[in-house]
Design a protein that fits this description.
148 residues, 4 helices, 7 strands, 21% helix, 26% strand
Amino acid sequence: MSLRERQKQVLASKDVIRDARPGAVYTVTDAAIRFPATDEASRSYHAVRWVILIQSTRLCQAASPRTVLVLPCSSSHRGKLGSYDLSVPRGTDGFDAEAVVAYVSLIQPILKADLKQYQGFVGMEFLSDIWRTLASVVGLSDGQPTKP
């Protein structure tokens, strides 16, 4: 495989990446997302998974790095929410499921090439909730989760 072919595999198309910014909701290849506490063999994979981008616009839209930081989301969460999980408010742009959870503690890089389709933007109020919770996750605040 040529270098050019390998680069195409890890770069997102300009049509996909043009809306990339913090708070953007995308569908991605489900296999690109890792859930460390889950036995991968027993995990139910879906055609796509929704994620929220949380990296700066400049880095999201640039060719380098080839990765982008995302928060995986789920509409099939069971049980009590973890301290750093956020319920996505109903009616949030980009989500059509009734009860969606954003796993802030599972922030992870994925290849930009795994971004499939822009779905919408979570809005500044919910993005602010994400930033506050993320600050706790990475130790930039008092360490206490912030629930809206």
